[in-house]
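Quick review question:
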C-alpha cells in the first residue's frame, strides 16, 4: 500500500468518486485539503477549504478529476466553480505535482514555467483499462435506450481499438452483435480478427457505414465527418465516448435525423461506486510513485 505520510494533497473538483479517493489518501497517511468536492460524505479528517487557493496553499500535489479542465482552465466536474490559474498554482509547495486525467497544453506550459510537474492519469494502463469496463457498459446502455432493436444480431461499429474500444468491442461481440472494428494500426486490426471481429482501416469506412446500426466512437478526433454521417442509415445511432468535442459531426447527424450523443465521463455516471473504487485503488499508487521520482519538499 502506498505510503503518503507527510504529504499534503489538494483535491480540486470531483464527485462521489473523489470522496472515496479522499478516504484512500487519508488512510495512507496524507493530509488532504479539498475544494469543489461534495461535502456530503466527506471524510471528517479532510480539510474543506473556503476557496481553491486556500486548498492549494502549501500542497505537495494537486489532483483534478479525470475529466480535467476545459481550454480555459475551468474544472469540468466540480460542486463549486474552479479555474486553474497561475495565481492558484503559485501557492503550491515547491516541486509540486499536478495530476489530471487530461492536461491541456496551456496548463502544462504554465506548470512547467513554475517548476510544477504534470501527470496525465488517464495514461496509466491499469486505471484506463479498469475504467473501460463501466464506460463500455454505459455506452451499451445508451445504445439500448436509443434504439428499438436488440444489440444481438445488430451491426455495430467500434471506432478505435484503444483500451475502451477493445473492451467495448468484446462486450458487443459477447452480446451477439456483428462487430466491425476500425483501427489505424495493423496490429490492432490483427487483434480484432483474432477476436472474431471484422477489422477495418479508417479508409474502409465509406463502404462499411451504410450497413451499420450503431456506431461507437472512442477516437478524440473527427472521424465521422459530414460525408460519412450522411452515408449512414437514418435509423442508426451514434454513441461518442471521446472527450469533448468528440469525433462526430453532430450537426450533420441532427440534419440527417440520426440519434447521436456525446457521452464522456460514463464511469462516474453509470457506475459511481465501482468508478470510485477504481480511482481510490489506483490513484494513490500513481501519486506515491510520482512522489518517489522527484521527492518534492
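Suggested answer, residue by residue:
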Amino acid at each position: 500500500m502506498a505510503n503518503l505520510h507527510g504529504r499534503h494533497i489538494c483535491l480540486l473538483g470531483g464527485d462521489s468518486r473523489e470522496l472515496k479517493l479522499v478516504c484512500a489518501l487519508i488512510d495512507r497517511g496524507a493530509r488532504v485539503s479539498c475544494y469543489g468536492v461534495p461535502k456530503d460524505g466527506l471524510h471528517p479528517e479532510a480539510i474543506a477549504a473556503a476557496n481553491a487557493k486556500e486548498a492549494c496553499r502549501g500542497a505537495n500535489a494537486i489532483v483534478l478529476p479525470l475529466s480535467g479542465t476545459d481550454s480555459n482552465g475551468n474544472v469540468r466536474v466540480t460542486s463549486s466553480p474552479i479555474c486553474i490559474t497561475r495565481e492558484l498554482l503559485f501557492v503550491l509547495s515547491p516541486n509540486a505535482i499536478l495530476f489530471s486525467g487530461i492536461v491541456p497544453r496551456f496548463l502544462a506550459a504554465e506548470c512547467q514555467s513554475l517548476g510544477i510537474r504534470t501527470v496525465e492519469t488517464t495514461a496509466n494502463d491499469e486505471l484506463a483499462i479498469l475504467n473501460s469496463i463501466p464506460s463500455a457498459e454505459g455506452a451499451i446502455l445508451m445504445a439500448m435506450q436509443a434504439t428499438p432493436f436488440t444489440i444481438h444480431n445488430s451491426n455495430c461499429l467500434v471506432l478505435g481499438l484503444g483500451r475502451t474500444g477493445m473492451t467495448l468491442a468484446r462486450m458487443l461481440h459477447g452480446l451477439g452483435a456483428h462487430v466491425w472494428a476500425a483501427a489505424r494500426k495493423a496490429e490492432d486490426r490483427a487483434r480484432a480478427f483474432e477476436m472474431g471481429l471484422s477489422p477495418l482501416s479508417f479508409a474502409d469506412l465509406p463502404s462499411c457505414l451504410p450497413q451499420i446500426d450503431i456506431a461507437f466512437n472512442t477516437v478524440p478526433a473527427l472521424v465521422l465527418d459530414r460525408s460519412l454521417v450522411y452515408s449512414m442509415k437514418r435509423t442508426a445511432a451514434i454513441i461518442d465516448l471521446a472527450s469533448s468535442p468528440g469525433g462526430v459531426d453532430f450537426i450533420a447527424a441532427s440534419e440527417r435525423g440520426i440519434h447521436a450523443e456525446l457521452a464522456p465521463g460514463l464511469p462516474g455516471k453509470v457506475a459511481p461506486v465501482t468508478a470510485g473504487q477504481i480511482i481510490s485503488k489506483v490513484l494513490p499508487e500513481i501519486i506515491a510513485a510520482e512522489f518517489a521520482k522527484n521527492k518534492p519538499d
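Why it works: Residues 272-294 form the longest helix (23 residues). The CA atoms of residues 164 and 177 lie 17 Å apart.
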